[in-house]
Amino acid sequence: MSRPVKVSITYCASCGYEPQALSLTAALLNTFTYDLSSVELIPWEDGSFDVVINGDLVHSMYREGGFPENETIIQAVRERLAD
Amino acid sequence: MTVTQERYRQGMSYDAYKAQMTRNADRFAANEQAVVLSPDDVAFFASLTPPLYTLVIAEDWCGDVIANLPILGRLAEASGTIDIRVFLRDQNLDLIDQYLKEGKFRSIPVFVFFDHNFRELGHWIERPTSWTQKLNDFRNELFQREPALKDFSPDTSPAQLPEEARNVLSQARATFRTENQAFANQAVVSEIRAIIEASLASKERSA
């Protein structure tokens, strides 16, 4: 049985990034439902949009620039579920 | 593509912008009231040949707009030389895409200054460099001294911090911002003034 996968999304609330955070959350829940242990939304600031899966930073707006494609994050979750 | 004076005039006045805000109006007003301008800065801006056309790109959900646009508003009021026209970023992507931070980020607020002949003098984006540095220094120091944070690098994403550590960081940042608001406000005025002074000095040399 695959280990539970937790996704944490830090988004800059003062930058108006809620739509992107909610879109990614909906995509993850629609795709994986009970395979996720949780999706954590963290309102932050400083222009951040970070996605962490089981403690690994898989997307950082500072590092990669811009928002991640939902499909990229879905694929990263799939890989961890397959571990 | 440059901003024409005709396009500039399509922007909202400062008061019209405030009137259409749907959120953060109270914080905006409180920040406006908290601004203290030095007589020297007011005298400098008052000495400029009016008007100093100032194109602003903003949104009312943005913390840096709530913090920094009121400073420009107070400076305009005190100096009597600054004409402000505000454009909402998400409805004017052609404007914001001319003033991207580091060439890629649609950061706001953006202040673009034009002289009385509508020649561009320069622009300012988001927040003062010195304030960003001060925030970074504070964050580094906090991660060294705070027990909940000292096992982590200051570069750690908030999403990778335990909830307790994240709450400590969030609270400490909020307190630091409140205690250093005067520094941050003065840094905005100083940077704007430096942009205008440098541009005017450059024009004088080339005249």
What does it look like?
The complex is a heterodimer of chains A (83) and B (207). By secondary structure, chain A is an alpha+beta fold. Chain A has a single domain (5-82), classed as Glutaredoxin (3-Layer(aba) Sandwich). Chain A has three helices and four strands. In chain A, strands 2-1-3-4 form a four-stranded mixed β-sheet. In chain A, a hairpin with a 2-residue loop joins strand 3 (49-53) and strand 4 (56-60). In chain A, helix 1 (18-32) runs parallel beside helix 3. The longest helix of chain A has 15 residues, at 18-32. Chain B has 207 residues and is of the alpha+beta class. Chain B has a domain at 5-127: 3-Layer(aba) Sandwich (Glutaredoxin), CATH 3.40.30. Helix content of chain B is 53%, strand content 12%. Chain B is built from nine helices and four strands, in the order ααααβαβαββααα. Chain B has helices at 5-8, 14-20, 25-34, 39-46, 63-79, 93-96, 129-145, 163-179, 181-206; strands at residues 52-58, 82-88, 110-114, 120-125. In chain B, strand 3 and strand 4 form a beta hairpin. The longest helix of chain B is centred in the C-terminal third of the chain and has 26 residues, at 181-206. The mean pLDDT of chain B is 94.
List the helices and strands and how they pair.
The complex is a heterodimer of chains A (83) and B (207).
Chain A: E1 5-12, H1 18-32, E2 36-44, E3 49-53, E4 56-60, H2 61-64, H3 70-82
Helix pairs in contact in A: 1-3
Chain B: H1 5-8, H2 14-20, H3 25-34, H4 39-46, E1 52-58, H5 63-79, E2 82-88, H6 93-96, E3 110-114, E4 120-125, H7 129-145, H8 163-179, H9 181-206
Parallel strand pairs in B: 1-2
Antiparallel strand pairs in B: 1-3, 3-4
Put the structure in a nutshell.
With 83 residues, chain A is α+β, with helices and mostly antiparallel strands. Chain A is 39% helix and 33% strand.
Q: Please, what is the oligomeric state? A: heterodimer
Main sheet strand line-up of chain A: 2-1-3-4
Cα gyration radius of chain B (Å): 19 Å
- How many individual domains of chain A? 1
What does the average pLDDT of chain A come to? 91
Task: Output the CATH topology of chain A.
Answer: Glutaredoxin
What's the level 1 CATH class of chain A?
Alpha Beta
CATH architecture of the domain at 5-127 in chain B: 3-Layer(aba) Sandwich
The CATH homologous superfamily of chain A corresponds to Glutaredoxin
The separation of the N and C termini of chain B measures 25 Å
Tell me the span between the first and last alpha carbons of chain A: 10 Å
Give the fraction of residues assigned to helices of chain B. 40-55%
Strand content of chain B: 5-15%
Fourth-level CATH superfamily of the domain at 5-127 in chain B: Glutaredoxin
The coarse overall form of chain B would be globular
Tally the helices of chain B: what do you get? 9
Q: Are there runs of chain B of 5+ residues with pLDDT below 50, and where?
A: none
Helix proportion range of chain A: 25-40%
